[in-house]
Specification:
The structure holds 2 protein chains of 2 kinds.
Chain A: H1 3-23, H2 28-32, H3 35-45, E1 60-63, H4 69-78, H5 118-132, E2 139-144, H6 151-162, E3 168-174, E4 177-178, E5 181-182, H7 183-186, H8 192-198, E6 202-207, H9 211-218, E7 227-232, H10 255-264
Parallel strand pairs in A: 1-2, 2-3, 3-7, 6-7
Antiparallel strand pairs in A: 4-5
Helix pairs in contact in A: 1-4, 1-10, 3-9, 5-6
Chain B: E1 2-6, H1 8-22, E2 26-30, H2 34-37, H3 40-45, E3 50-52, H4 57-68, E4 73-77, H5 80-86, H6 88-96, E5 102-106, H7 125-130, E6 136-138, H8 143-155, E7 160-163, E8 169-171, E9 185-188, E10 193-197, H9 201-214, E11 219-223, E12 226-228, H10 232-242, E13 244-252, H11 257-265, E14 272-278, H12 288-295, H13 299-319
Helix pairs in contact in B: 1-8, 4-6, 9-13
The chains are: A alpha/beta, B alpha/beta.
Chain lengths: ~270, ~325
Amino acid sequence: MTETQHSQAQQIRTDILKMLYGCQSGHPGGSLSVVEILLALYNHVMRYDPANLSWEERDRLVLSKGHGCPALYAVLAQKGFFPRESLWTLRQLGSILQGHPDMRKTPGVDASTGSLGQGMSIAVGYALAGQRAAKPYRVFCVLGDGEAQEGLVWEAAMAAAHYKLNNLTVIMDYNQLQIDGTNDQVMSLGSIQDKFRAFGWETLETDGHDISAIAEVLNRPASDAPRFVLCHTVKGKGVSFMENAVGWHGKPMDQEQFNAAMREMGC
Amino acid sequence: MMADKQSTRVAYGKALAELGAKNEKVLAVDADLAHATMTVDFATQYPDRFYNFGIAESNMMAAASGLANSGYTVFASTFALFGAGRAYEQIRNSICYTHANVKLGLSHAGPSCGEDGGSHQSVEDIALMRVLPDMTVLVPCDAIEMKKAVFAAAEKDGPVYIRTGRLPTDICTAETTPFEIGKAITLREGSDVVIFACGIMVAQALEAAELLAAEGVSAAVVNVHTIKPLDEECVLRMANACGAVVTAEEHSVIGGLGAAIAESLMGKTCASFERVGILDRFGQSGKPQDLFREYGLTSEAIVKACKRVIMQKHASSQQR
């Protein structure tokens, strides 16, 4: 990861922390873990045009782990989908930035998600539409790990392989923590890679905090199967007292914690 | 009334295939029930526009939203129970919340699906779909009306629920009967009592009106094919004109047509009121006609309810 990439990630993390401190709610841990995945997508992989939101051939992103949306909003603002000032309205009445992604309110958001497990099925629909119209766009779905406990994820996995949706890539933000504890404490996922392979997917894995490495994996030529990329991440990444801490899934920061986090961002 | 009976699911299948010929943007999806919901007609004629999602209704509904939000008009079908019930939250969050252009043609609703029993007879689908913001709810009364409903649903932007049935039933409307979403149809004028009915109970309501006429009672019959948005103007006008109201539906009396009309009339009319429908029970196996008797979904049950509300009307007018 380059120095520039690091500072880009720091900027997004700073925005996330300010947004969440401002609204005194939201999900810091899973927002911080997904930053590099989103930067790799928006800086090095996806084709999109903030000036032409309905461009049919744009790549689609479905943030299935919708609670990580502060990270997505910060990236979309940086890319010019909406004014940066909107970030400070997160979760407030009338805001274009809802607590979970709403495609009808936020420019650049292609799927309304947050009810865990549904994003992959929506992405299957988008991928089928692209396939049947022979459009060149790709569909990316960012999935949480705990979310894979939903049976719906596996219904979608089966359908994607059945319809040979090689325009679909599912990226798992594998930070191994969920609300009530580690994945293994709550409901063991076993080998996620093996499961997706068994469903007929191409599976890859990478360091989920290395933008270049993520981009390299995502930019590999498509096989004839849907692709699953396991990204090893750290929940709460970048803020020492949040890293790998179960308690920071959905907790607001007090002023002292916010100041400490800002210092770690170099602010 | 025409003699031959047809099921609304067969009419749904034919209409969908016909619609497919006219509109290339129409897709159909099913969950391994194409031969029961009758999307098989569409699937046979347009195999490249049909997706079978297997026995995975929740995935089908969320994927349908993805297809619809890519510019297609998607008809999604399975049994009412497994669509409106099992995939409820996918319909809510992926379809309604995003205003996706998905039409839910869900079949085997109500005890009329017969022998399969209570696990398969949805008595609550209208209630479930009606409470969803942005959802339109259609319950066509016969095969002719079903075709009109399918075409009207395709024309309308956004989610629409269309309830279809397995049992061949009487034809109550004509090809020339106008159909407009949200516009109830007065099939028979009357002055003593008004019967608001939907689905297969419309035929029972018409029969009840005949039986009442033989006893000198004048009953109006209104076909409320659109439960939502309800034709509140018609409902209030007819209720006030007759002073006595009976609703009839092949569905729980909780949350369905009767409830919708009660909610609409509350505080606005002095008309007496009674609901004919399933009284907070599950279905069970049996022949449809036996089940109709067991659950009180008959013209005789409607006649009795009409007599009771007429008596109440007279009693309360005497009190005044």
